[in-house]
Amino acid sequence: MNWDALATYGPRMLQGLVVTLQLVAISITLGALLSIPVALARMSRSRILRAISFGYMYFFRGTPLLAQVFLVYYGAGQFRTQLDSIGLWWLFKDAFFCCVLTFTLNTGAYQAEILRGAIRAVPAGQREAAMSLGLKPRQIFRKIVMPQAILIALRPLGNEVILMVKGSSVAAIVTVFDLMGVTRLAYSRTFDFQVYLWAAVLYLVVVEIIRRVWDKLEHRLTRHLRSA
Amino acid sequence: MDLLRLLSFGPDGWGDELLQGTWLTIRLALATVPFGLALGFLIALAKRSPNRYLRAFGNAYTTVFRGLPELLTIFIVYFGGQIALQRIVGLFSDATVEVNGFIAGMVALGVVFSAYASEVFLGAFNNITRGQYEAAYALGLRPATTLRLVIVPQLVRLALPGLANLWLILLKDTSLVSVIALDDLLRKTGLAVRVTKEPFLFFGVACLIYLALSMISSIGIVAIERWANRGLRRAS
């Protein structure tokens, strides 16, 4: 163990970990909010809405996250005058904001696909039974379909959270000091390979915690579906 | 138009550079697959092995490489491989070694690919009924022959959807090797941006190229799946 490096960079790496978790928490939450209208648009009767949501999802699921981050972060620089005139430049010059924006759009597309699959997996009989009870379409969606769809979506959503923790490391390449960013900095100062292994351990611990917590959550939320 | 001239081929356009980068991305992805598949298959066998230590190793391998960010794996293989090789070479001579970026990228992506692929194989193994093994045993086939002639052909069909998915993920993950000085599509695009100051155009084009690659892959995957399922359609 290189204790000197650990004393200098250990606390900073933990700070970096906090930045990573912030990035993931904000993006996953905003992405979840975004995914609902997108998934609904994808299944809507309007051909235009379907086409727009399909294009959005296809683009963000088919291109690398790193390329998307570059497109937003460096691409925004090109529109500086326009962004300045609408008073948004201060946001786009911040790498953290650009990463949150890109990650939100990215995970929103993935979550919309998960949600769409889950909504379609709810048995048709549920909807028919609700209709025969005289519930309104809005009520059927909110009280019958959605609660069951979310349970079906729970497992893939957990995977998506873990993918986002891993994917968020690309933020380091556009100067965000998340865990990966601090690690790269520490390596460039100390040339000690150990720092990468510390980062690896931290990432593994985070992923494992999320996996366990998610398992508990799923177990709790599906308790009414298990036979005693 | 100016933008079109920037994307043209030749000395003042960047089309040929982007094409070179695309070619390297494709080669890297194609080189990774056989390596990752072989490794993934071995890991899957280890996870099914009666030996406790082999099983533990296989499970630990999967947990680690599915939990680490791909970017970190690439750094670890690139820098760690360099240090390890240097130590080994240092035993015999004073020569300095330089890890080839392509090989490092291939190994790192292959290791990640194999961790996911082993899970796909494991799922496929579980979908092959015991009767298949018993029938092969009753016919007097040796375990190795059973694996080769009875199990693997069915495994290919069962694992194909999962593996196709992994290929599409791999194609996108290749963009991460641009950080270890490998001239892939994204890095070439970055160079073009630095010279032309047209980030939105070039990164947009790079995204479209990645999209095109995955579209072409999807067509290929459909064809391969039709080939793998050829025996099934007749039977049903």
TrEMBL record, chain A:
PANTHER family: ARGININE ABC TRANSPORTER PERMEASE PROTEIN ARTM, MEMBRANE COMPONENT OF AMINO ACID ABC TRANSPORTER. It is a multi-pass membrane protein. The keyword Membrane applies. Keywords: Cell inner membrane, Cell membrane, Membrane, Transmembrane, Transmembrane helix, Transport. PROSITE patterns: ABC_TM1. Residues 17-214 form the ABC transmembrane type-1 domain. It comes from the Bacteria. Belongs to the binding-protein-dependent transport system permease family. HisMQ subfamily. This is ABC transporter permease. It comes from Kaistia terrae. It is found in: Cell inner membrane; Cell membrane. The keyword Cell inner membrane applies. The chain crosses the membrane at residues 20-41, 53-76, 88-110, 161-183, 195-214.
From TrEMBL, chain B:
It is a multi-pass membrane protein. Residues 22-221 form the ABC transmembrane type-1 domain. SUPFAM superfamilies: MetI-like. The chain crosses the membrane at residues 24-46, 67-89, 101-125, 146-170, 200-224. Pfam families: BPD_transp_1. CDD domains: TM_PBP2 (cd06261). Keywords: Cell inner membrane, Cell membrane, Membrane, Transmembrane, Transmembrane helix, Transport. Gene3D superfamilies: MetI-like. This is ABC transporter permease. It is found in: Cell inner membrane; Cell membrane. Belongs to the binding-protein-dependent transport system permease family. HisMQ subfamily.
